Structures are given as structure tokens and as C-alpha cells.
Amino acid sequence: MSTFGKLFRVTTFGESHCASVGAIIDGCPPGLQLAAEDIQVQLDRRRPGQSDLTTPRNEKDRVHLQSGLEHGVTLGTPIALLVRNEDQRPHDYSETDLYPRPSHADYTYLEKYGVKASSGGGRSSARETVGRVAAGAIAEHYLKLAHGVEIVAFVSSVGKIHIPVTDPSAVDDADNDDAPEPLSAEYRRLLSTVSRADVDAHLTRCPHVETAERMKNRIIRAKAASDSIGGTVTCVIRNLPTGLGEPVFDKFEAVLAHAMLSIPATKGFEFGSGFRGAEVPGSVHNDKFSKRPDGSLGTETNWSGGVQGGITNGEDVYFRLSFKSPATISQAQETAQYDGTPGSLEARGRHDPCVVPRAVPIVEAMAALVAMDLLMIQKSRQAATALLPPITTLPPTMVMPPKRS
Amino acid sequence: MSTFGKLFRVTTFGESHCASVGAIIDGCPPGLQLAAEDIQVQLDRRRPGQSDLTTPRNEKDRVHLQSGLEHGVTLGTPIALLVRNEDQRPHDYSETDLYPRPSHADYTYLEKYGVKASSGGGRSSARETVGRVAAGAIAEHYLKLAHGVEIVAFVSSVGKIHIPVTDPSAVDDADNDDAPEPLSAEYRRLLSTVSRADVDAHLTRCPHVETAERMKNRIIRAKAASDSIGGTVTCVIRNLPTGLGEPVFDKFEAVLAHAMLSIPATKGFEFGSGFRGAEVPGSVHNDKFSKRPDGSLGTETNWSGGVQGGITNGEDVYFRLSFKSPATISQAQETAQYDGTPGSLEARGRHDPCVVPRAVPIVEAMAALVAMDLLMIQKSRQAATALLPPITTLPPTMVMPPKRS
Amino acid sequence: MSTFGKLFRVTTFGESHCASVGAIIDGCPPGLQLAAEDIQVQLDRRRPGQSDLTTPRNEKDRVHLQSGLEHGVTLGTPIALLVRNEDQRPHDYSETDLYPRPSHADYTYLEKYGVKASSGGGRSSARETVGRVAAGAIAEHYLKLAHGVEIVAFVSSVGKIHIPVTDPSAVDDADNDDAPEPLSAEYRRLLSTVSRADVDAHLTRCPHVETAERMKNRIIRAKAASDSIGGTVTCVIRNLPTGLGEPVFDKFEAVLAHAMLSIPATKGFEFGSGFRGAEVPGSVHNDKFSKRPDGSLGTETNWSGGVQGGITNGEDVYFRLSFKSPATISQAQETAQYDGTPGSLEARGRHDPCVVPRAVPIVEAMAALVAMDLLMIQKSRQAATALLPPITTLPPTMVMPPKRS
Amino acid sequence: MSTFGKLFRVTTFGESHCASVGAIIDGCPPGLQLAAEDIQVQLDRRRPGQSDLTTPRNEKDRVHLQSGLEHGVTLGTPIALLVRNEDQRPHDYSETDLYPRPSHADYTYLEKYGVKASSGGGRSSARETVGRVAAGAIAEHYLKLAHGVEIVAFVSSVGKIHIPVTDPSAVDDADNDDAPEPLSAEYRRLLSTVSRADVDAHLTRCPHVETAERMKNRIIRAKAASDSIGGTVTCVIRNLPTGLGEPVFDKFEAVLAHAMLSIPATKGFEFGSGFRGAEVPGSVHNDKFSKRPDGSLGTETNWSGGVQGGITNGEDVYFRLSFKSPATISQAQETAQYDGTPGSLEARGRHDPCVVPRAVPIVEAMAALVAMDLLMIQKSRQAATALLPPITTLPPTMVMPPKRS
């Protein structure tokens, strides 16, 4: 379906060659000061043609707000917005129409809908993400104003080039039951401090200087080889309130995984210690509690990734997302036509050798949508409970723990 | 929320110390022959106490069907089912009530709900999964009868002990742009043939004989060390029809990720080539098409994991899920009380040193629920389109590809 | 579907001859003190066999709470509850199985589900309402504690016997453009003061003494004639906060109508001035504002029924619901068998000549569910907006109206 | 919320003074031939300024399709459409801003959202219905092509001027237990034959010639008196398949009531025998079955209004909807300002003395949306059940009734 969220609901529309792409955001809190520029800044980061690492297409992608605001203030009613498509003409017939493109959605869209659209993969085009990014920018704007939430995504790997994650001196072989800590102290520092300015300082959107340079070269090599290369994006959400996430099916990480895997070309998601967390014994993996300076409870480590039992605990939420190598490449591929006839397919159209730098604002947008929706659900519960008379007859086991001071 | 699905909807209830746990399954197709035993078999595989690798608690966990069936046939009305809790008494007050258990949900449940339950983490208990497994067994039963769908999950790693996935002879270093194929031919063979009997032949539920033995020893070492260890579960879904998955937010893999990350203790999810897919160039990663014996299109490789553009393509869907090391361990932990006072917490209660073998039927259940719901949505679209008159005036680009023969 | 609500969600299960009927209530605010008795009291009012005006069947209908509470306090987790069916055996084959009962759901259930259940109309049985009444009692309990909300329903007509609604002296003919006020001052007084004690003082649950007696006789006459008779139930909700109802599709009255028409045997719904409101000129129908003693705005009349633009305005919400005459009657009916063969069908089973007295708690339950869910949605919005910084640059038209004092 | 439907989902946006109003229709079956004109025809019927009985404003209201179609064929992806607002400027400050207009939504919108919009009642404006009518036209287009469904609404009363419904010779007093049939034979003939051409033959959209003339005069009198008058709209849906409607909360009539009461200014809904059905004994009210010429079962009478147990039975669905007299009138009203100060408010802006003729296409649109969504849900169930193996061991009571011939 094209709708995401329960209280803060986003419905997107549009494909590559129609009149416009966009979204309706329903359920935005009223009284939020919002300018088109708050949205445009993230659309610009998503836009192709920002560097010679990405496709040369120069889309303007200006957002047009249709409703839901007056004098720059949200009314609480649906905010509709759209971005015009520059190239609205369905493409002309060509020989390549005989072929479903390998690892594209041409074949599956045809199997699903039974209609052959000009754009082949229809809504699986990256163009569709315009509506998400715009909607996410609104959610993020709220989260920042209301809770000081910070969401920063960055490129953590391109091909086999990774920002170093674990301590290189750690011993890690299968014969040894010990395992190194999932993340080095240096990497944890990066997570807790990285800013969008740090990220945008590099064309690759990797804030780790040496790695950024190696990634850039890897992308250039892919382009030179008429090939493509994938990568991963890591994202951190800071200052989230505790209590977000709805057990049992809408745990914070479950909804987050849903949101992230809905982004085109994604293949994997891990949060906190992720796949490495399965290799570390419980005695090391457990996040012990300690008193924070402000008197509240915090955890010393954060292998939980800010979530326990599906509910945020006030620590940073961080996660990593895998993007496959783009399916469109500038070399011939031996494959089959729709009718099974074998043949060679030459690429058509514009394409990026590596999409992960442009994926950064999309990941941030989806993270914001998840946090915003789960925040609004939790606010409802808290407000409802706050109106109840106190209970005076509880047994000792249910007595609330002593107030922190 | 405690409801999963749009047309085939499961709502679960229950925590550790209440009268019963269970579920209502709403939207099950009528006319399905269903016996309690079809459900019980998976509940028994989920049940603790099946071996000395797991907790000695011997729950009986008999399912009691309440409604929605007559003479063993589904009526199409809600199927309610419940499993009684043996231990219904809230526990007595103890010194450990002062402490939120590290990496458990005690602290976050309290932050979220503001009520201190006897069971601490409330619905984050593994006991909650009873309802899912029962509901999933019904979905799976339908999928098998209607489409011959096979769902098999198995333990693919415990700690650092993994079933070998890639060809050990492959060169894989960061200085080399080439990358080995994400999965070896042998492993792909395993995925396409593994059965539940193969899986249950080992206490560890790992169908790879040598690895199974090493895993068993790893679990025994964890137990001996009063510690715990995590692992991964891999699952394959075979014979799924094409066309399942709802662009753009409810792509097959997105809903699958949602379902999987809603299982307690999970930290990561990848499908198809997963995180490895980001390291392989597009020219290698693309799944080229070829004609199958029956005339339809298939792909030679399947790095896509059976899904393209969020829609199933008829190839096997396979994915891997990471489970952290259990938080409950039999050793003292230095942590803090609710009020911030530092102290040492001794474990209480029964616990598994490793939960992944028992997670196998839970993963299968959630996979079945995802496939079932998305199947029913797609059935609606197909049936609706089938009633429309044919269109005779399409331009060449929209003309349907020649029929396969 | 068997689920109602978005944040306070009720899912019911069960039909006449299965093991139990019941519900899961998901999303109940935590920290609510709740006893089984708070629920039982409404189940008892719904129960048949309370008088010789209704069916002699004496069901015990004890509610069994399964989960979601500890020491009588809600945990915020799903509350499952069930009521056992006394008569769990599917009935034996009988000649009447050849006939779909006229104006029952036997025929449509068969058309819909393609499975012939013992109970014929399956979930259309009044037995299904047990789950609603129990869930509604929980919602009502919250609403009363948190906002002092009062919900009172009563029988306003049986057959052609109505509580007098308009002033009998008013002229009301089609040639005269004037129309009497939709409700007399006396009736409005009844609405604003009627209590459950007033209602239960009469077997017919009509709080208007003379009318109650006439209704009773009408029901007795129906029974004597081996026939049945319908009626209407009127309900008032007092002390609802302003701001409830979600434009545009989930206006308060729209969700209320949905809830009410989901009750078996209902045929019509009107709120406020209802159908009479269409006959009164706007100059009379408009509810003019005036200052209330507490400084807030109120309306002098309340033809709007407490709702304007789909949102509650703080005045009493009141509405009326029509129930058809019960389809089961103790006389032979000339009709056709499933295969079209004409024949005469004799009634089987127990039945009420008039169901409206027992419908009273069902109407109250559904009203509570609607108010509760829309309240929780609005709480979320208010809490979210409350966190935003004030806006200082509004144009005069958007400046908030002066505070009431 | 601004979304309606579960599989065929409509999300609308827009208020009076923003850039545009419109909708996204998600879940439309692919392969449907659809032209803008199919939508425009109903928008034109909704448009004000069609006669001197309605407001003189002449909006052009051209629909602009944004996505989801190629070469006039639906792709199965979201169809976005918009209609530009001619008057996009928020109005200037005026003295009337001090007053909440009586029986408008100015006060409740302010209570709900806490933001004072230029248009006062925000989305409660009739302008919002543009998106519904457009979406409904698409649904209706499908229903007609796939099932030959016909939806015709008409004005059945204005003020106290009604199309005669019951037989005038029938005796109907409270002292007589008999009641006339809810609808005369003549009226039932009208329901089964009335066409849109019949309806549009009269400015009042009343297809009953003598009544149409009297209604017209009633509206002229209201205008002359600077007043307004309400009315009712009756709608019939013909050729609906059996089996639509989802027990228990989404019965066909419950969803229909929800949809209808979400239309601005509505106060009541009844279907089939409606409120009259409560006065007729069961022996008369029951719809006896008989064999239709084609061998299927039909009912001789249709007091059920085409629905039994919440599920369509193949007979005509018909219902009636009440619209209050418009709140905007051209005369001064004694009321209070936001701060409680009493005063006299003069009307501003354009307004209709009677809105029911224009409501006709809105009622048809919402009826189409309900039927379409419930049809798609039922299609899913049927398709799912059709794949199951037959059951050979049923007891006699569950054996399917003999096939009709």
C-alpha cells in the first residue's frame, strides 16, 4: 500500500513519467511553523546531479504545497504536496521493451498488475521517494522543535570499503568464545557526534575522511568499468524520548525495519549490535544500568541500539541498512525476453553507478516518519493515563520504583 | 499494537503470569479443514524443555480452539484460541524487584506504561509468541494446501559457529573489486532442499551435520560459563506465487522485516544477498532471466531473494535473522537499581543459554503470516481485474508481452 | 472485520455453538483500576431471561479475564476476556436445515462464506454482542473516571408506541413552512437528566412511566400473536470533552453511525435533530452561542446533537437507533428452501418478541467505544501540539480569539 | 482521518482557500480504461452554479490527473488528482472573525486544532467533497464495467415536501398494531427503475414530477425569506453481487452509514424499512424467499434493503439520508463572540438556500466507495477459498444446500 503510519500518515503517489509525484501527509500536529524551504533542503539532498559521482540529470524538484497550511502554520488538516515531473511523456517504443531488465521490477510489476507501463517497474523507481523525503522532512521538523531530536545518516560502506567499526587489535576467530565488542570506542564516538555538515562535507556522504576518499575511488572504478556498486548507510537518532514503540508487533525496531526495507534496493537491516550481537556472549552484550548526571537511568554500553523490548530507552537509536549494487549498468547482459527468447540487453536511460550517497536523506526521512508516528501513539497513552485517579492499594511488587533524584 | 495483517489478521494477548495466552485469527478463508493438531505440532516445536540444551521447564501448552470452526472446518469467522498458563500467580516480592534487569524490557515497560507488572517486561516475554506460532500454523496450513508453499527455517549460526555460506576458496579482500558470490553452490542447494525433518534431526536445529555438532558444544560451553550465546536463523519460503507484496510501503521484504524484527531478541534481518549484496558489483549481482522448462521466466541466480521491486518473482524467498545472546544469565551483574543506586543483581527464574533452536518455529510462523496476508491482498486485485473487459486500443509500448509457451 | 477502533481496539470472536465468545481489548490505558464486576454489570443487563418480556433462556454469562491486568490494575497490554457458551454442541440435523430463515442471515452467510454452519447466521447471532458489551464497559469505566462521562440509553419506542418527542400543540403540516422544534422542552429535560436507574426501573427500559406501560402491553400482544415487534433506542452521552471526531471521514457522528449500524437488527440512525432537522428552516435550526456560567461558550439549543463539523462541541451528544422487528417468530412462514422449493417453515429455537430492552447496554457499549477511541486520537494531537514553541508572527485573521474568562 | 477504505483507499486533501483540493486513490484495480471525463461528469453535477436554485458562484472545477494512468489505462498504482481552487487567498480580516458562526464548525475546529484558519471550519467546507466525488466516480466506473452496478440518488424531500412513500389509504395509528407496509408499491417501482436522466430532468433532482415542482417553490420561498431549508436524499444501488459486507463491525450497512454520515450537514441515515421497520410486526417485515426465474433465491419483499446480517443478498440496496438546513443564512443572528460577548452576526460569503440537489452526486460517490471496497475484500476471500481442496467428510448439517437449477 502507499500509506505509511497510523496517526502521522503519509500517502505517496507518482511514477517516472506521470505529471507529478508527491504525497498527502495526514495527521500533522496543528500549530507547527513550516516553510517550503524546510522540505526543499532534503529534496535537494536527494536530487540526482549533485556531483559527478551521480547521474548527470539535473532535476529541479521544487516542492509545491497544496493545502494544510495558512501563513506558514499547519492547520492540522492534510498537507498535500507535489513535485512536477520534467519528463512526463511515456517513452517511445524501443527494442528493449521486449526484455524485462534483470534485477529490475519490470517482470514482477507485470506479474502483479498485468499492465505494462512505460516505465517498466512503475513505482519501484527512485523517483517515488520524493514524496517520502518531503513527508519525512515535516516529521523531522516537528521532532526537532518538540524534542530536539537529531537524525543523521551517512554512508558507512561502498563495496568492500567500510568505515572501521571494530577495534583492529581485537582477536576474533571461531575457536575463541570471546568476541570483540561490536563497535569500537572510536566508532561509538562518531555515532554520538556526527552532524549533517560532517556528512555533506564529502561527495560520498561518508564522514570518515580516509574512508571517504577510498569510497570515491571505488565508485569511479565502477563507473569506468560500466558497472555499479552497492553500499551501506548507517543512521543515528539522538534525543528520542523513552517509551516509543508498540508491543508486540509494532516494536520500534520492527516498524523501523519495515520503513527501511521499503526503500528501493535495500537488502538488509540491523540495529544496535546487529548481526555481530549474535556472536557476543550475554555477559558482554548486556547493557548495565547506571545513574546519569541528571538522576535518570542510562546504560553504559548501548548494544541494544536504544531499544529494549521494542521500546526506546532514551539512548541513541542507530542502525545500518544495506543497498544492493544498482541493477542498471552500461554493459550488455545476456538474459531472456518476456517470451523466453534468449538475447543480449543493452542498458538504456540515465543511471548512478552508486546510489548510497543519495539514499542518505531517504533513510533520514523514513526514520523521522517512524519516530513521529510512534511518538504520537505514545503521547496518546500518556495523556490518557495522566487523567486517571492514582491507585492507592497496590501490592509491594507493583509499587512504582522510588523516584529518581 | 497487538494486531498483525490487513486481511488475514492476528491479534495476540497474554503475558507470563496471567490466565492464558492466545490469539484471535480474523479473516481466515472459510472451508479450510483444520485440526488442533495442525497447530499443536508447531507449538510443541516452540515449547521449552525439549532437550537439555534448553530450559528444563516442561510446559504442556495445549491449544484450545474457541470459535470459528465446526466439525473441523473453518467458517470464515474469527478463530480464537488459547493456551493456559501453568504459573498464573504473580510472583512474590523479592529483592530483585529493585533492579531493572540489564538488556531486559523491565525499564522500558515501566517508562512506557508507568505500571510495574510482576513479570517486569510484560509482553516482551517469549511466552507471548505462543499466539503467533498458533496463528502462523493456520496460515501455513492454508498456504500448503492452496499453493504447495513450503516454509523451512533452521539455525544457521550459534555465536561464531556458522554453516559455511561462501566458497572457502574465494578471494575476498578490500583491495580487490571482485567479490565472491554471496552464497556458494552448496549452500544454495541446502536452501532449495532442506526439510523440517532435516532440521529437527539435530537438537540445535542446524541441518548441517558438522556445524550442528560444533554449535551444540558452543551452547554447552555457554551454559557451563553461566553465560548465554546468540545466533542466527535462516528461513526459506518455496513455491510462493509471483505478484505478492504491495508497493511502495508494503513491499514483501518490508513486511517480512517488520514481522521478523517483532520477534523478541532479534537484532538484524537480511534477505537474498543481504549485506553481502552491497559488496558485489551489479554485473555479478543481477539475476539474468531464462526460460524455465514450463515455459515461464525464471532467474538463473537468485541474489534478489525471490523479490524484485518489493514483489515476489516466483523464485525462493530466503532471509536470515539475528538473535542477540539472551539477557538472562546465571551470574551476578554490576548494574543500578531503579533509583540509580549501584549494586549487584543475581539472576532469577529459568532461562535458556541459547534461544535460536526454539526460535525456528516462530520464524516460520511469522513468515507464513506475511505470505498469507499479502497473498490475500493480491488475490483481491487479480479477481477484480479479471472482471474487466479487455482493452483493445493500447499503444505498442503497453501491449502485453507475448504469452509464454 | 471483527476489529473496531484505531487506538482503543476491540476484536471480538465467537458464535452461538462454539466454546466461548469474547474479545481482546488492545490499547487500554495502563493504570486503570478495573474489576470483573465493572464488566459483569453490563453483561447482566444484556443477558436474556431478565423478565418474562424476554426469552426464558437463563445464561449465566460470567466474564473470565485472561490477561492485561494484575492486582486489578490494567497493564496497558491486551485485555482478553471470554464468556463460556452453555450450549456448545452444534445442533442436530433437522428438517428446517433445508430452509434459509426469512430475514435472518442464513442465506447471506452461505453466499458469503460458502460454508453452512450449524448456527446458520453465524456471527449475526445476538450472542456475538457479548464481547462488545464487555469491551464497552471497560471504555465506559475509563471515560467516567477520567472525564465524568455519562452514557445512558433507553427504549424510546416499541412499535408505534413512542415517548412523546415534540410539543403536541405544535402545528406541523406540509403547507406550513414553519416546523415545530424537533424536540419539546420536556423531552430535552429527559435527555439531560435520565439515569440508568430511571431506565432499569421498568422492564421495558423506557424511563417515561405512561409510555413504559403501553410498551409492555404492546410486547405482550406481540407474544400472544406469535409475532414480534421492533422499536427504537435513544442514547445520550454527557460530559464529553470538546474536540472529538476526526475530519473528514471519521467525523464523530460517522463513526458513531458505523458503530450503531453494526449492532444486529438495526435499520436507522439519527443524531441531534435527525430526520426532523431537514424540515426546520436554518434560522430556527441554528444553535446560537452564549456564554456559560464558567465563561466558556455553549449553545442555547442543541439541534446539532453535540457535534458540529464532525467534532464534539461540549454539548450533550444524543442519537436514536431503529431496530427492526425480530425475524424469528413462532408462526409458520411461507417461503422457499435453499433449492427454491416453496414450503412452510416453522420457527425453531428460543426468541424474544422484542429485543430493544436488551439492546440498551449494547448501544451504550458501542457509544463508549466510539468516544474512547476518538478521545485517545485527540489526546495525541493535543499533547503533540502542546510541545511546540508558540508562534509570534501570525496575521490578525489567525490570531487566536481572546481567552474566555 | 482523511482516508476511507481498506483495499480501495481514498485519501482527500484541501480546504476552501488553499491551492487545490483533491485525492489519492490507492488500490484501484489495474487494467481499467478511465478518462478524465468519467470523473468530470460527476464533478460537474456536484458543482455549484448549475441553476438559480443554488449559489451563483461559477467554479470550473476541472480535474487534473497526476499519476496512476498511462494511455487512459489504470496501472494499479495510486491515482492522484486535483482540482485547483479559484480563490486561493486567505480572506482579509473582518469584523465577523470575532464570531464563531452558529451551527458551523468554526468553534469546534478551533477547539480541536487550536489554530484559527481563514476558512473557519476548515475541512468541513463543502469544497472538501470534490475529492470524494472524483474518487467515487472511479469506483462507480469499475462497478459498472465489472458488475453492471447502477447507483442512482435523488432528492426525496425538501423541508416538509416529500415524495409520497406509503400508501395514503393505509390506516396508521398507535392504537392499531397493524402498520402499513413501509413503502408503497408505486415507490418501490420508482426505486427499481429511476435513472440519472430522470433525476437530472428537474433542477431539484427529484424524479417525482409533482413533488419536484413543490420542492422548487419551497426552496424559492426559503431564499426569499433569507432563510434555508434541508431535505433528504434517497439512493438505490442495483445489481450488487451477494456476499458484500464484513461481519461484525464492517457490516455493509455499518460502513454505508459511516460513509454517509461523513458527508457534511447530514443528520440521519436509514436503509431498507428504516425507522418505519421498527413499527411493523415481524410477520409482515420478514422477506420471504422465492425462486427467481434464473433459479437463484430472491425475496418477494425487500424491507431488508438488500442486506441481511450485514451482507448483501442480491436485492437492491436502498437508503435515505437527512441533511439539515444550511447554517449560512442571509439574516442577522443573535449569538455570542468567541469571548462570550453577545452580539449580532450578519452572514458573509456565498451560500445555497438548499444543498440537497447538489448532494446527490456526493451520496452516489460515497455509495460507490463503500461497495467497491467491500467488493474487493470479498473477492479476496472467494479467490482464497476457491483454491482449497473440497471437503468430503462433512456431517449432514454442514452439507451445502442443493445447487439451484
From TrEMBL, chains A, B, C, D:
Keywords: Amino-acid biosynthesis, Aromatic amino acid biosynthesis, Lyase
Keyword Transcription: no
UniProt GO MF annotations: chorismate synthase activity; FMN binding
SUPFAM superfamilies named in the record: Chorismate synthase, AroC
Enzyme class: lyase
Cofactor: FMNH2
Highest taxon, organism lineage: Eukaryota
GO cellular component: cytosol
PROSITE patterns: CHORISMATE_SYNTHASE_1, CHORISMATE_SYNTHASE_2, CHORISMATE_SYNTHASE_3
Family, per entry: Belongs to the chorismate synthase family.
HAMAP family: Chorismate_synth (MF_00300)
Protein name: Chorismate synthase
Source organism per UniProt: Roridomyces roridus
